[in-house]
Amino acid sequence: MTRRIALTVLALVTVLLTLAVVPLGVLLEAREETSFRASAQADAQQVAAAAEETLSDHRSDTSMLQLLAAAGARGDCAVVYDSAARVVARTPCREATGDVPGLVAATLAHPRTSSERTGDRLTVATPVGDIQDVSGVTLLVRSVDPLNDRIWAVWGWLALIAVLGLLAGTFVSVRLARWVGSPLHAVDEAAQRLGEGALEVRAQAGQGPQEVRRLAATFNTMAARTEALVHGHRTVLADVSHQLRTPLAALRLRLDLLAGDVDGDALQELAGAQEEIARLSRLVDGLLAVARAESTVPTPVPVPVDAAVAERLAAWEPVAAERGVSLSAHGGQGQTVSLGAGDLEQVLDNLVANALDAVPEGGAVRIEAAATSGLAGQAAVELRVVDNGPGMTSRAQQSAFRRFGNPEAGGTGLGLAIVHRLVTANGGAARLEDTPGGGLTVVLDLPRRRPGHSRSGSRQQPPD
Q: Is 268 in the same domain as 315?
């Protein structure tokens, strides 16, 4: 952003300088040329006035010769012609190139002062005498080198002013860009660190424009409230964990002791009670797992997809073999995702467990992984857990990621909720699809690890 602001301001300054300097330079150049022509015509008319005293009034030519000498001293060439186009007097220099006789004849025929630029010289023709009684013509030839020098000097000064203005504009644009962009960059970095789990991070709220300061202050307020909520949630989780697990464990132990002293119908009732206690324990563990996924912010670490999938397949293979279900994996070689430590393993455990519970004997569960663009065009790995079980109705799919949202679930109904919380907490996405031919496919878009982006750390969990 800093670079864009600087380049935008610099481009605006450049355009303004161009629009100001170029027309001004053209105007000054035209003004210098007009002034140069007027000066040459004035000098030629002075010589013509002195020549008129000699040619028309037949006075002494002293004044005319003095003006011719002065013109020669300035580097000009001046020639006085009579009405017959004969040379009366001249300075000792070469006349102008071009059609001089034609210019003289045209001036005698149509008495008026005219100027003509040929190469590096300006020729001015001025009639001598009145328009009704022209007694001759005066030619003044002047080099345009002084004019060119002045024009170059004008453009040089304008170029220097433009360069200084551009340098000043560059300095102002860079300072402005840093003044606006640096605080925004600091807020962006703080937001990234907050998203990675550093709940204590805060942004500097005393720099930049007033709007950026308000943004930083609002971010700090949000971060403080988030930190308070997360820490409070963790405290509640710790209390719930101890308050529920301890009496459940004690109750299970007492039921186990009672089971050794009874038989018959009482033993069956105790066995049923033990199963309900075990189910309640699993339900509590599931609720705590969902709450942890919601209240904690993972610190991403690089996780090789193929290694994690192979490890979980090896762990679940005995269960699948016992139930007569085929368990396989395809793809994912060389793909690395950026997730919290242990999150991918927990996600795979829940998905494979759900699939094995749903697939009948002789069915199949397959895990597929492939690189994809993911959400908003970001690099991602698409992980698919495909089964050919009974599937799930569209209504059940819409609520499957909520706690106890699936009325068709045979277990606690928390497995997909845990998966959804873990995936979304890591910046991914989860959805359900029907498997072609029957069954359910869980599709996960997991953020791919960026090249050169490696951070170590783990998800902070509340104490149990």
A: no
* β partners of residue 303: 337
Answer yes or no: is 173 within a domain.
Answer: no
Q: Taking Cα atoms as reference points, which of 292, 295, 237 lies closest to residue 414?
A: 292
Same domain? For 363 and 413 the reply is yes
pLDDT attached to residue 234: 65
Which residue range is the domain that position 286 belongs to? Answer: 197-297
Name the domain count of the chain: 3
- The answer on 39 and 137 residing in a single domain is yes
Residue where a domain stops, chosen among 297, 326, 343: 297
Sole residue written with tokens 């027309």 = 23
- Specify whether the backbone of 66 is left (phi greater than 0), alpha (psi in -120 to 50) or beta: alpha
pLDDT tens, position by position, 162-195 = 889 888 888 888 888 888 888 888 888 888 888 7
Same domain, 341 and 304: yes
Q: Is residue 376 part of a domain?
A: yes
Clarify whether residues 268 and 319 are in a common domain.
no
Q: Is the dihedral of CA 205, 207, 210, 216 positive or negative?
A: negative
Q: Residue 164, exposed/middle/buried by CB under 10 A (0-12, 13-18, 19+)? A: exposed
In a domain, 130, yes or no: yes
Q: List pLDDT tens digits, range 4-60.
A: 777 888 888 888 888 888 999 999 999 999 999 999 999 999 999 888 888 887 888
Do the domain assignments include residue 168? no
Region of residue 57 (left: phi > 0; alpha: psi -120 to 50; beta: else): alpha
- pTM for this entry: 0.47
pLDDT for 372-431, tens place per residue? 875 555 678 999 999 998 888 888 888 888 765 555 555 556 778 888 888 888 888 899
Do residues 359 and 325 make contact, with C-beta atoms less than 8 angstroms apart?
A: yes
What does the mean pLDDT of the chain come to?
A: 81
Do 271 and 322 fall into the same domain? no
